């Protein structure tokens, strides 16, 4: 039944439906990336397997949510905000776990992981408040977005300059290199999301709405979020994957 329903709706998708298109591409890309990460596992040394496994879990959780979001959007023609935030609340903390896992070689403590997870949850919960609870109140939408942005910058600080950076520096070599690339993902790749928020939320920027038409604003937000997810989830995973490749003795050149 569900299958029939979604086939019908996919068949109905208009050629200029960029939101539907990016949901569709997103679900396929996340699924393909998961298969790739899972099937590569056996080629790595044990200590790198957990990291690559987590990369696969991140894209797999996203794939399942993208199937839901695609159908939700097709059936209701509105943003699947709830599923979006459930997906992020599961996958963003797992990205924080990745930082901990690769820095374990330099003696990273669980406390570092929990601090990163804590700030990521603050960032997402306040973002959700801004999109849902504060709906119709531009000032509060701007305030929640700002609080979320502060939590985001705390994460950026911790990995670029704080204790995570010190561990990465002491690990050196391939770990430091991978850590630095992940830092760029968080600084530039994750910055795509507040951009989506600003475009789609009434009070996203100093209480202003950039895109006048509410429907167009919603669509811009979804497309930007979908692009952000593909870049960040798959890209992050590939950085971990190549670290595992270069650091595993079992892999033949
Ligand atoms: C796979 C999903 C990822 C990496 C999601 C990341 C989401 C963010 C970095 C969201 C950040 C936000 C702000 C910094 C302010 C406005 C509200 C948010 C939640 C969009």
Search tags:
single chain, 253 residues, mainly alpha, Rhopdopsin 7-helix transmembrane proteins, 10 helices, 81% helix, binds retinal
State the share of residues found in helices, binned by percent. Answer: over 70%
| CATH fold type | Rhopdopsin 7-helix transmembrane proteins
Share of residues in strands? under 5%
Molecules bound to protein: retinal
Structural class: mainly alpha
Q: Assembly type of the shown chains? A: single chain
Average pLDDT works out at 93
Count of helix runs = 10
Rg from C-alpha positions?
19 Å
Name the CATH architecture. Answer: Up-down Bundle
Number of separate strands = 0
- The SSE order reads HHHHHHHHHH
The named CATH superfamily:
Rhodopsin 7-helix transmembrane proteins
First-residue to last-residue Cα separation: 48 Å
Characterise the protein shown here.
- Keywords: Chromophore, Membrane, Photoreceptor protein, Receptor, Retinal protein, Sensory transduction, Transmembrane, Transmembrane helix.
- The chain is mostly helical and 253 residues long.
- The chain has a single domain, classed as Rhopdopsin 7-helix transmembrane proteins (Up-down Bundle).
- Helix content is 81%, strand content 0%.
- It is built from ten helices and no strands.
- Helix 2 packs parallel to helix 10 (214-247), helix 3 packs antiparallel against helix 10 (214-247) and helix 8 packs antiparallel against helix 10 (214-247).
- Retinal (RET) binds next to helix 4, helix 5, helix 6, helix 9 and helix 10.
């Amino acid at each position: 039944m569900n299958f029939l329903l979604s086939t019908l709706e996919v068949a109905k998708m208009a050629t200029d439906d960029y939101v539907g298109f990016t949901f569709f591409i997103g679900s396929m890309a996340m699924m393909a990336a998961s298969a790739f990460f899972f099937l590569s596992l056996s080629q790595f040394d044990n200590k790198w397997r957990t990291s690559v496994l987590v990369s696969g879990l991140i894209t797999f959780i996203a794939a399942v949510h993208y199937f839901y979001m695609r159908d939700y959007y097709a059936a209701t023609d509105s943003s699947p905000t709830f599923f979006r935030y459930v997906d992020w609340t599961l996958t963003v903390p797992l990205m924080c776990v990745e930082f901990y896992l690769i820095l374990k070689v330099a003696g990273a403590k669980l406390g570092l992981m929990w601090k990163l997870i804590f700030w990521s949850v603050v960032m997402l919960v306040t973002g959700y408040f801004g999109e849902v609870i504060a709906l119709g109140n531009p000032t509060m939408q701007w305030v929640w977005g700002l609080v979320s942005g502060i939590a985001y910058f705390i994460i950026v600080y911790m990995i670029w300059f704080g204790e995570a950076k010190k561990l990465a520096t002491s690990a050196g070599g391939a770990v430091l290199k991978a850590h630095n690339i992940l830092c760029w993902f968080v600084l530039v790749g994750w910055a795509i999301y507040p951009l989506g928020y600003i475009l789609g939320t009434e009070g996203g920027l100093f209480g202003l709405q950039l895109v006048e038409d509410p429907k167009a604003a919603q669509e811009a937000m979804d497309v930007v979020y979908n692009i952000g997810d593909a870049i960040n989830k798959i890209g992050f995973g590939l950085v971990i994957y190549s670290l595992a490749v270069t650091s595993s003795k079992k892999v033949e050149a």
